[in-house]
Amino acid sequence: MQLESPKVTVPKSAEYLFNALTDVKNFEKLMPENIAKFEVTDENTFLFGLSGMPEIKLRLKEQTPHSYIKLGAASDKVPFTLIAHLEGTGEASSTVQLQFEGEFNAMMAMMVKGPITKFLETLSSNMGKL
Protein backbone atom coordinates (compact mmCIF):
# COMPACT_ATOMS: atom_id res chain seq x y z
CA MET A 1 0.00 0.00 0.00
CA GLN A 2 1.34 3.40 -0.93
CA LEU A 3 -0.16 6.71 0.20
CA GLU A 4 0.98 10.29 -0.30
CA SER A 5 0.21 13.52 1.49
CA PRO A 6 -0.63 16.64 -0.44
CA LYS A 7 2.46 18.69 -1.34
CA VAL A 8 2.71 21.61 1.07
CA THR A 9 4.74 24.80 0.77
CA VAL A 10 6.59 25.76 3.94
CA PRO A 11 8.20 29.17 4.56
CA LYS A 12 11.52 27.52 5.50
CA SER A 13 14.52 26.51 3.43
CA ALA A 14 14.95 22.86 2.43
CA GLU A 15 18.17 22.81 4.48
CA TYR A 16 16.34 24.02 7.60
CA LEU A 17 13.53 21.48 7.16
CA PHE A 18 15.99 18.67 6.51
CA ASN A 19 17.91 19.49 9.69
CA ALA A 20 14.69 19.75 11.68
CA LEU A 21 13.30 16.45 10.38
CA THR A 22 16.51 14.49 10.92
CA ASP A 23 16.35 15.50 14.60
CA VAL A 24 13.68 12.97 15.58
CA LYS A 25 12.53 14.87 18.67
CA ASN A 26 11.02 17.50 16.34
CA PHE A 27 8.41 15.00 15.13
CA GLU A 28 6.50 15.68 18.35
CA LYS A 29 5.65 19.15 16.95
CA LEU A 30 4.12 17.52 13.85
CA MET A 31 1.90 15.03 15.66
CA PRO A 32 -1.90 15.30 15.75
CA GLU A 33 -3.65 16.70 18.81
CA ASN A 34 -4.82 13.23 19.87
CA ILE A 35 -1.26 12.07 20.59
CA ALA A 36 -1.21 9.95 23.74
CA LYS A 37 2.54 9.29 23.93
CA PHE A 38 5.76 10.57 22.37
CA GLU A 39 9.17 9.36 23.49
CA VAL A 40 12.63 9.67 21.92
CA THR A 41 14.46 6.40 22.56
CA ASP A 42 17.79 7.35 20.94
CA GLU A 43 19.13 9.95 18.51
CA ASN A 44 17.57 8.15 15.52
CA THR A 45 14.45 6.56 17.01
CA PHE A 46 11.16 7.68 18.51
CA LEU A 47 8.01 6.03 19.74
CA PHE A 48 4.54 7.52 19.50
CA GLY A 49 1.01 6.50 20.24
CA LEU A 50 -2.26 8.05 19.14
CA SER A 51 -5.46 7.59 21.12
CA GLY A 52 -7.06 4.28 20.22
CA MET A 53 -4.08 3.09 18.12
CA PRO A 54 -1.11 0.85 18.96
CA GLU A 55 2.24 2.49 19.68
CA ILE A 56 4.58 2.81 16.71
CA LYS A 57 8.36 3.02 16.84
CA LEU A 58 10.10 4.77 13.93
CA ARG A 59 13.82 4.84 13.18
CA LEU A 60 15.74 7.11 10.81
CA LYS A 61 16.92 4.76 8.03
CA GLU A 62 18.25 6.86 5.12
CA GLN A 63 18.84 10.48 4.27
CA THR A 64 20.04 12.58 1.36
CA PRO A 65 20.91 16.10 2.50
CA HIS A 66 18.18 18.65 1.97
CA SER A 67 15.95 16.44 -0.21
CA TYR A 68 15.12 12.98 1.21
CA ILE A 69 14.48 11.42 4.62
CA LYS A 70 13.34 7.85 5.15
CA LEU A 71 11.99 6.57 8.45
CA GLY A 72 11.12 2.92 8.92
CA ALA A 73 9.27 0.85 11.47
CA ALA A 74 11.67 -0.38 14.14
CA SER A 75 9.66 -3.61 14.37
CA ASP A 76 9.28 -6.19 11.62
CA LYS A 77 5.73 -7.03 12.77
CA VAL A 78 4.27 -4.29 10.57
CA PRO A 79 6.86 -3.32 7.93
CA PHE A 80 6.38 0.20 6.61
CA THR A 81 8.30 3.35 5.78
CA LEU A 82 7.57 7.06 5.99
CA ILE A 83 9.46 9.15 3.45
CA ALA A 84 9.77 12.93 3.29
CA HIS A 85 10.57 14.48 -0.09
CA LEU A 86 11.90 18.04 0.28
CA GLU A 87 12.40 20.51 -2.53
CA GLY A 88 13.73 24.04 -2.18
CA THR A 89 11.61 26.59 -4.03
CA GLY A 90 13.53 29.68 -2.95
CA GLU A 91 15.91 30.93 -0.29
CA ALA A 92 13.31 30.67 2.45
CA SER A 93 10.69 28.40 0.93
CA SER A 94 10.34 24.73 0.12
CA THR A 95 7.79 22.05 -0.59
CA VAL A 96 7.34 18.86 1.38
CA GLN A 97 5.49 15.72 0.44
CA LEU A 98 5.20 12.69 2.70
CA GLN A 99 4.90 9.17 1.37
CA PHE A 100 3.82 6.08 3.29
CA GLU A 101 4.68 2.59 2.05
CA GLY A 102 3.51 -0.50 3.89
CA GLU A 103 2.84 -4.15 3.30
CA PHE A 104 -0.60 -5.09 4.56
CA ASN A 105 -3.11 -7.75 3.63
CA ALA A 106 -6.25 -6.48 1.88
CA MET A 107 -8.38 -6.43 5.03
CA MET A 108 -5.78 -4.55 7.08
CA ALA A 109 -5.16 -2.11 4.20
CA MET A 110 -8.87 -1.23 4.12
CA MET A 111 -8.89 -0.61 7.87
CA VAL A 112 -5.76 1.57 8.04
CA LYS A 113 -5.99 3.56 4.78
CA GLY A 114 -8.26 6.29 6.19
CA PRO A 115 -6.41 6.84 9.48
CA ILE A 116 -2.98 6.79 7.80
CA THR A 117 -4.11 9.23 5.10
CA LYS A 118 -5.41 11.61 7.79
CA PHE A 119 -2.17 11.17 9.78
CA LEU A 120 -0.03 12.07 6.72
CA GLU A 121 -2.17 15.14 6.05
CA THR A 122 -1.76 16.26 9.68
CA LEU A 123 2.02 15.77 9.64
CA SER A 124 2.42 17.72 6.41
CA SER A 125 0.08 20.54 7.44
CA ASN A 126 2.05 20.94 10.70
CA MET A 127 5.42 21.38 8.90
CA GLY A 128 5.21 25.13 9.43
CA LYS A 129 5.49 24.53 13.21
CA LEU A 130 9.12 23.39 12.88
List the helices and strands and how they pair.
Elements (H helix, E strand, L loop, with lengths): L1 E3 L3 E3 L3 H8 L5 H4 L4 E8 L2 E6 L5 E9 L3 E6 L6 E11 L2 E10 L3 H20 L5
Antiparallel strand pairs: 1-8, 2-8, 3-4, 4-5, 5-6, 6-7, 7-8
How does this structure look, described?
This protein is α+β, with helices and mostly antiparallel strands and 130 residues long. It has one domain (2-129): Alpha-D-Glucose-1,6-Bisphosphate, Chain A, domain 4 (2-Layer Sandwich). The chain is built from three helices and eight strands, in the order ββααββββββα. Strands 1, 2, 3, 4, 5, 6, 7 and 8 form an eight-stranded antiparallel sheet that branches. The longest helix has 20 residues, at 106-125. This is Carbon monoxide dehydrogenase subunit G. It comes from Flavobacterium fontis.
Strand content: 35-45%
The CATH superfamily bears the name: START domain
Order of helices and strands: EEHHEEEEEEH
Q: Give the N-terminus to C-terminus distance in angstroms.
A: 28 Å
Overall pLDDT confidence = 94
Structural class, by secondary structure, is alpha+beta
Number of domains: 1
CATH topology: Alpha-D-Glucose-1,6-Bisphosphate, Chain A, domain 4
Helix content: 10-25%
Count every beta strand, where a strand is a DSSP E run of 2 or more residues: 8
The total count of helices amounts to 3
Q: Write down the overall geometry.
A: globular
Give start-end ranges of low-pLDDT stretches: none
CATH class category label: Alpha Beta
Largest sheet: 8 strands, antiparallel
Evaluate the radius of gyration: 14 Å
Question: Which CATH architecture would you pick?
Answer: 2-Layer Sandwich
